[in-house]
Design a protein that fits this description.
The protein is an alpha/beta fold. It is built from 4 helices and 6 strands, in the order ααβββββαβα. A 6-stranded mixed sheet has the order 1-2-3-6-5-4, sandwiched between helices. It is elongated and about 95 Å long.
């Protein structure tokens, strides 16, 4: 099947596709904000310039469009690397156009390679990476998906601020401190 648009028309249509403030991203942002999570958007100092950055949680959230990031094009692992990054959802919703197929497959593969490199760099720097796919933000799935994100955020916060007890200095000479001594009249 041939393209029904002229190259100029196709260029105009493609140039109007946004990378910031997309509808899926807005759904995630609204849900996080209404549940008390405060974040920054597209922080340039964080590798990969994630869509949403929650610094207290050391978490970067990427809201990926299924087509542009090749959701279902190749098997995406559930955990990334050491398990500190997660892909939420798994579907076959990435439909490659039949016209100029070689170009689109190459473009989407480059996007996937860049994404995985960004995720790896973030994890090496101690960040948790959460990837939310566009197909997981339908009205029926939104609440479930965002609850999963919330669980991951809370688990990450607990792991960051987990109390690690310090052992007592137990020399053979000094007795351990006691709250009350025997024979103190109590």
């Amino acid at each position: 099947m041939t393209d029904r648009m002229t190259p100029e028309q196709r260029h105009r249509c493609m140039s109007h596709i946004r990378s910031k403030g997309t509808k899926p991203e807005m759904k995630v942002r609204r849900w996080l904000w209404s549940h008390g999570y405060r974040y920054r958007l597209n922080v340039k100092s964080v590798p990969g310039k994630p869509d949403i950055v929650l610094r207290p949680y050391r978490t970067a959230i990427f809201v990926n469009g299924c087509f542009w990031h090749g959701h279902g094009l190749s098997p995406n692992p559930a955990p990334i690397g050491d398990g500190s990054g997660y892909f939420l959802g798994n579907s076959k919703c990435c439909k490659i156009p039949t016209t100029n197929r070689k170009f689109w497959v190459a473009k989407i593969r480059r996007n996937q390679e860049r994404d995985h490199e960004n995720y790896r760099v973030l994890q090496e720097n101690g960040w948790q990476v959460i990837v939310v796919w566009e197909c997981q933000l339908t009205p029926k799935k939104l609440e479930h998906t965002m609850r999963e994100v919330e669980v991951l955020l809370n688990e990450n916060m607990l792991s960051l601020y987990r109390h690690r007890p310090l052992p007592y200095d137990t020399d053979g000479d000094s007795p351990l401190p006691m709250a009350a001594e025997e024979g103190s009249g109590m």
